[in-house]
Design a protein that fits this description.
Strand order of the largest sheet: 14-13-12-11-7-10-9-8-15
Largest sheet: 9 strands, mixed
Order of helices and strands: EHEHEHEHEHEHEHEEEEEEEHHEHH
Number of strands: 15
Oligomer: single chain
Number of domains: 2
CATH superfamily of the largest domain: Dihydrodipicolinate Reductase, domain 2
Distance between the termini: 53 Å
Number of helices: 11
Structural class: alpha/beta
C-alpha cells in the first residue's frame, strides 16, 4: 500500500473545503489536485491547501493526476457526470456528497457503473461519527431498549437536503435491516424549483425485514425540536423498544429512558470532529477490503431506494415494494402529481423557508 493516497477534490465551496482540509490533515492522504469553476474560489482554496495542482476542468485534472481518491462536492444535478469522471480516472474510491442521485433511474446507473468497474464509493452521511449519535447507537446495541419495534426521524429541512440523513441513521439504529415496503404522502410544490428539488413536506412509513417499523417526516410539516434553536439542526432520530427509548438531536445532544432510569448528554453537529474519523475510515477501506466504510455507497443506495419509494407512493398511491425493480424520474412524477396548494407549517420558523 502507498504511504499516501493521492486525492483530487472537485468543488471548493463549504463542503468541498471541509473534505479537502480533512484529507490534507490526515497523514495517509495527499491533496494532489483541486477543482472549481470559480477561479477566485479556486485560488483562495489553493493557498489554504499548500498550492496543489488547480484546474477549472474536473475531467482534465482527474485524467492528468490519476488519483487514488476522487472526491466531489458539487451541485446534486452533476452526480452521474462526476462519477463517470472518477471511474475513468482510475480512482479506487469515490467520495461524494448526499444525495447520491436525483432519481432512482440515475442512482441505478451510478450503482451499475461502480459495480462494473469495481470502484469503492463513500457517501457523506458523516453525522454518525458525532459522539451523541454514537452514544444512542451504543444504548440500542447494548439491549437497554429491549426489543426495538420502531425507529424514527424528523427534520424541518427539505427532502433532498435531509431525508437521506434521517434514513441512513435510523437504518443504522436498526442494524442495517433491509426495507421491504414503504408508503408515503407529500405536500407543497415550492421546493420543486430548488437545486435540491423536493416536495415541501414528505412523510411516510417503512416496513423493515425484521418487523421494525420506520417513521419519517421531513420538511415544512415536520414537528418542532424545541431543544434546538438553529433551524437546520432541528432533526431528531431515535428508536423505541419494549423497555424504553433513545434519541439523538442533531443540534442538541441525546437522551434515553430505559429500565435503569433516565440519562442524557450533550453533543451537536461539528464538522471539525466528524470529518477526521470519516476520512480515516476511507484509508482503512483502501488498505483492507474487509474494513468496509460505514458510509459505503451500497448502504446509501438502500436508503435512496427508501426515499424514492416514498416519492413513488405519493405519485402512484399505496404501498411500494422494495427493492425497486426499475428506475424512474420521481421528481418529474411529483411535479405532475402534487396539487398547487400551499403547504401548512408546523412551526412559525418554517414559514420563511417555505413561503
Amino acid at each position: 500500500m502507498p504511504d499516501k493516497y493521492r486525492v483530487v477534490v472537485v468543488g471548493m465551496g463549504k463542503r468541498g473545503m471541509h473534505h479537502a482540509a480533512a484529507f490534507s490533515a490526515n497523514e495517509r492522504f495527499q491533496v494532489a489536485g483541486i477543482c472549481d469553476v470559480d477561479a477566485g474560489r479556486l485560488s483562495a482554496a489553493a493557498a489554504k491547501l499548500g498550492h496543489p495542482q488547480a484546474s477549472r476542468d474536473a475531467a482534465q485534472l482527474a485524467r492528468s493526476l490519476k488519483p487514488d481518491v476522487f472526491c466531489f462536492c458539487t451541485l446534486p444535478n452533476l452526480r452521474l457526470d462526476m462519477i463517470r469522471i472518477g471511474v475513468e480516472s482510475g480512482a479506487r474510491l469515490i467520495a461524494l456528497e448526499k444525495p447520491i442521485a436525483m432519481s432512482s433511474a440515475e442512482a441505478m446507473k451510478i450503482r451499475d457503473l461502480l459495480q462494473a468497474r469495481g470502484v469503492k464509493a463513500v457517501v457523506s452521511h458523516q453525522h454518525r461519527y458525532g459522539a451523541h449519535y454514537r452514544q444512542v447507537k451504543e444504548i440500542i446495541a447494548g439491549g437497554a431498549l429491549g426489543r426495538v419495534h420502531t425507529v424514527y426521524g424528523t427534520a424541518t429541512g427539505w427532502m433532498m437536503h435531509m431525508l437521506s440523513h434521517l434514513v441512513d441513521y435510523l437504518r443504522w439504529f436498526n442494524d442495517g435491516a433491509e426495507a421491504e415496503w414503504v408508503m408515503g404522502q407529500a405536500a407543497g410544490r415550492g421546493k420543486l424549483a430548488d437545486l435540491h428539488a423536493s416536495p415541501d413536506y414528505i412523510a411516510g412509513f417503512i416496513h423493515f425485514s425484521n418487523g421494525v417499523r420506520g417513521i419519517v417526516e421531513c420538511g415544512a410539516g415536520a414537528p418542532d425540536v424545541p431543544e434546538v434553536n438553529y433551524w437546520w439542526r432541528k432533526a431528531r432520530i431515535g428508536a423505541q423498544g419494549t423497555l424504553g427509548f433513545a434519541e439523538v438531536l442533531t443540534g442538541g445532544g441525546w437522551r434515553a429512558v430505559t429500565a435503569t432510569g433516565c440519562s442524557s448528554g450533550e453533543g451537536s453537529m461539528n464538522y471539525d470532529l466528524d470529518m477526521p474519523p470519516y476520512i480515516q475510515d476511507m484509508a482503512r477501506w483502501l488498505d483492507d477490503n474487509a474494513q468496509v466504510h460505514p458510509c459505503n455507497f451500497e448502504s446509501a443506495y438502500q436508503g435512496h431506494e427508501i426515499v424514492m419509494g416514498l416519492c413513488r407512493s405519493v405519485i402512484e398511491g399505496g404501498q411500494v415494494r422494495l427493492p425497486l425493480a426499475s428506475g424512474s424520474d420521481e421528481l418529474a412524477g411529483l411535479a405532475a402529481r402534487l396539487p398547487d396548494k400551499k403547504v401548512l407549517f408546523s412551526i412559525p420558523e418554517s414559514a420563511k423557508e417555505y413561503a
